Amino acid sequence: MNPGARLVLLGRQGSGKGTQCTRLSRHYVVPHISTGDILRAAVRDGTEFGRRAREIMDAGNLVPDDVMVGIMDERLDRDDTRGRGFILDGFPRTVAQAEALERMTAPRGIDVAINLDLPREVALARLIARLICADCGTNYSTADPPKYGMTCDVCGGDVVHRDDDTEAAIVRRLDLYEEETAPLIAYFDERGVLETVDAMGTPDAVSERLTSIIDKRRN
Ligand code: AP5
Ligand code: MG
Q1: Residues spanned by the domain of 36
Q2: Number of domains the chain is built from
Q3: Does residue 3 carry a pLDDT above 90?
Q4: CA distance linking residue 7 with residue 88, whole number of Å
Q5: Whose CA is closest to atom 7 on ligand 1?
Q6: Is residue 109 part of a domain?
Q7: pTM: predicted TM-score of the whole model, two decimal places
Q8: Where does ligand 1 bind, in terms of residues with CB under 6 Å?
Q9: 136 falls in which pLDDT band (50, 70, 90)?
Q10: N or C: which end of the chain has fewer CB within 10 A?
């Protein structure tokens, strides 16, 4: 990918956005900006904002658009995104956020939005099985846990279930995805930047599909 490339990964919760963004960010040496990770860091810091964000996240609801747009505006203003571009994971998630992103990145906009396509039932099963390192965010699953107990293979941190991976919160997030986020597929298609990638198969197989599409767009 060209230095300065601007990529958005779309897809329902559990489609592997976080997993694939981490890999793409290492492969292309581009910052991975995850709104979920930014919010979870605020929760860990114990700020008043973090406390409110935690309530919203644990219920599977969306943080208000104006708050998310403010966070993103600040993040995209940092120097690392100017040189290397960025990979967005979990933003935009509503049409209002997509319109704000268009304003923030004008006149060029974003280069490509990739929709990781995965049936709802498969996504649900992946989320119920998900384990995550509380320190570095590395993803595991009950079918593919860390090598030694619940200790992260990468950083030695504690591997846990995410607080919002209860069945009720997962179902709420998947419902909200249909209502609020799925319309972004048509939104980016109308702007000529949409690609769709099948998110079934192993993480390696999905990564290969992604890099082949991104490399094709580059040439
Ligand atoms: P966020 O952290 O973004 O969570 P999410 O949207 O619910 O998405 P997930 O992280 O659950 O799914 P993912 O697609 O990243 O899947 P993953 O790679 O982990 O947001 C959390 C909350 O913050 C939101 O609910 C909301 O409250 C708030 N928020 C964030 N952004 C916001 C915004 N813009 N506006 C408003 N509110 C916002 O994979 C899932 C599992 O599957 C893992 O266990 C993984 O190991 C496994 N897996 C991955 N790939 C494969 C594969 N190929 N085969 C088998 N298993 C796989
Ligand atoms: Mg994620």
Answers
A1: 5-206
A2: 1
A3: no
A4: 6
A5: 13
A6: yes
A7: 0.95
A8: 11, 13-19, 35-36, 39, 56-57, 60-63, 68, 90-91, 93, 97, 126-127, 130, 139-141, 164, 173, 201-203, 206
A9: confident
A10: C
Phi, psi of 164 (to 5 degrees): -95, 15
Q: What is each CA distance from 63 to 56, 83, 92, in whole angstroms?
A: 6, 29, 12
DSSP per position, 93-139:
-SHHHHHHHHHHTTTT--SEEEEEE--HHHHHHHHHHEEEETTT--E
101 has a pLDDT exceeding 90: yes
Q: What is the number of the ligand closest to the CA of 20?
A: 1
CATH code for position 11:
3.40.50.300
Return d(Cα 206, Cα 219) in angstroms, integer.
20
Beta strand 130-133 pairing with 139-141: antiparallel
Is residue 214 in a domain? no
